[in-house]
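Dear colleague,

Thank you for sharing your sequence with our group. We've completed the structure prediction you requested, and as agreed, I am returning the results in plain text so they can be pasted directly into your records. Please verify that the sequence below matches your submission; if there's any discrepancy, let me know and we will rerun it promptly.
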Amino acid sequence: MTTFIPRAYPIAEIAIAVESRVPERIQEGDICGVRKPQVGIGLKEASQFLWLLIEGLEANEYSILNTPVYEPFDPTGQYNDAKTRFDKKRFCVPLARLLQVAPTINLARIRDTADDYQPFYTLDQDDHLWLTDMGPLSHEGLIFDKVTGAYL
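Please find the predicted C-alpha cells below.
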C-alpha cells in the first residue's frame, strides 16, 4: 500500500528590491529573499525591500524564487557543462504589475529608500512589527521568470 502525502501550499513572505543596485546586479522588483511569515522586519529592511505575502506555490517551489540566473554557454559561445552562474536574480515582481493588484499603492514611495512605506502591511513605527496585512497575494501572473520570459 502506498502512502499518500498531500501537497502543501504554504504562505511565504518575499522581499522585493525597490531599487536597482548595479554592483550587486539587483534590479528593481527582483525577489531577494523568501521566508516563512514573520512578525516584523528590521528598519533597514523596511526601506530597502517591499514585503509581500504570496500563496499558491507548492512548498518546495518557494526555494527556486531566490535562485540566480545560470547560463549554459561560456563567453566564447561554447557549451559549458558546469554552467556559468551570474549574480543576477532570475525571478521578479515588476512593481508596475502590483498596480493591477492594488491600484492605490504609491510607486514613488515604494521606490524611495528613505521611506519605510509598506503598502501590503501596516508597521508599528516603534519596533517595525507587523500590525496588519492585506492577506496573501496569488503568485499567478505576479511573479515573472526572466529566463522563460513568462509569469508563473
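Summary note from our side: The chain has one domain: 12-145.

Kind regards,
the structure core
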